[in-house]
Every structure is written in C-alpha cells, then in structure tokens.
Amino acid sequence: MTYIVNDACIACKYTDCVEVCPVDCFYEGENMLVIHPDECIDCGVCEPECPADAIRPDTEPEMEKWVEFNRKYSELWPVIITKKDPLPEAEEMDGKEGKMDLFSEKPGEGG
Fold first, then answer.
1. Could you give the 3-state DSSP secondary structure of residue 4?
2. Which of 81, 100, 108, 111 is deepest in the core (most CB within 10 A)?
3. 107 in a domain, yes or no?
4. Domain for residue 21, yes or no?
C-alpha cells in the first residue's frame, strides 16, 4: 500500500503534509505535490494533515491512475521537506472540481 496525492491538491499546494512525513517522499511541482509510491512507508500521518483532503490511500477504488501519476512526477520534480505557504488562490480553489485543466508539469523549487 501507498498514499497518493490527487487533483484536489492542484492550485492549492498546502504543504502541511511534508512536515510530518518521516521519509521525505513528497515532491513539489509548480502547483501541486506528489508522493513517490516506492518511498512511502504507508504510515498515514500525512493524510489527516491535508486541508484539501488530497491525500488518499491507494486501496480506494480507481486509485491506480493516481499511483502512476504520482510515480511519474516524483521522478521529475524536486523533493520537498519544508512547509511553505500555500498558493495565493488556495482558499478559492480548495474543493473545486475538474482542476486537471489547471495542472502544470513544471517542477517547483523543492526544499
């Protein structure tokens, strides 16, 4: 089992989760985070920390696409271990549907 970040993170990018991760398996894109599925130790401490409810266990239905999505971008983006401010539009975008249209493949700064 692993945890994944889904599209609820897009345009919010809260980083409360990275502070509690004991293995530093979060990676930062321009407007979202992902979890490297091979590095995640399934501890689950990140899930309740996400204000956007974007972190889910891969055991939920239809999560395989998100495992592969997280794997792909965690191999391209820099690791993030430090909490940062959310994106300026985070409050407005939190809970919105259909945010994949806003997804950016660009890496974040990491750190």
1. strand
2. 108
3. no
4. yes
Three-state SS at 68? helix
- Whole domain around residue 8: which residue ranges? 3-90
State the Cα–Cα distance between residues 16 and 8, nearest whole angstrom.
Answer: 14
Quick check: 13 and 32 in contact, CB under 8 A? yes
Place of tokens 């549907």: 97
- Domains contained in the chain, number: 1
Residues 55-89, buried b or exposed e (16+ Cβ, 10 A)?
Answer: bbebeeeebeebbebbbebbeebeebeeeeebbee
| CATH number of the domain enclosing 56 | 3.30.70.20
pLDDT tens per residue across span 1-29:
899 999 999 999 999 999 999 999 999 99
Q: What is this structure's pTM?
A: 0.96
Phi, psi of 10 (to 5 degrees): -60, 130
Model confidence over 57-97: pLDDT tens digits? 999 999 999 999 999 999 999 999 999 999 999 999 999 99
* Residue 28 dihedral angles phi and psi, to the nearest 5°: -110, 125
